[in-house]
Design brief:
Helix 1 runs antiparallel to helix 5 and helix 2 packs across helix 5. A hairpin with a 7-residue loop joins strand 2 and strand 3. It is globular, with a radius of gyration of 21 Å. The protein has about 170 residues and is mainly α. Strands 1-3-2 form a three-stranded antiparallel beta sheet. It has five helices and three strands.
Amino acid sequence: MVSPPTADSGDGRGGTPGVDRELLDRWMLVMQGFHATQDVLVSELAERFNLRQGSAEVLVRLLAAPKHRMPMTRLAYEARMSSGGFTKVADRLCAAGLTRRTSCDEDRRLTYLELTDQGKDTARAVSQAVTEILRARVLTPLGRDGLGRLADAMRTLHDANGDPGK
């Protein structure tokens, strides 16, 4: 059975069979809100710490990790970076003296990225700055309840859509 065309919204876009304009519009608003907030976050961190996109996230993740280190493949996955893109980020962080690569004693195939002492200090400062920015740009407009609902919704979407490779 064919679905009836969506009603014309009166804004000149008209209805298209099978297209849920409200669904598309709302999803685009979600993406616009995320990208606008992420752009501000990345811009402010670049200005304060001279870090490129991805670097701050890697530092924050490493600061929270046991022994301030993670396998590079897992870190790239969690940061949603390609292996090539992540290698460039890791190279820059190592060159800046913030991280170092270490091998795994139990598995030679595994390489860790870990924070140096300077990296720990920088990661703490970045985490503090991210917290300030998120308070101003996310918590203030949404409130704690709104942020909780947003986080719950994103967790639900993550769980529902999971890993495309699995």
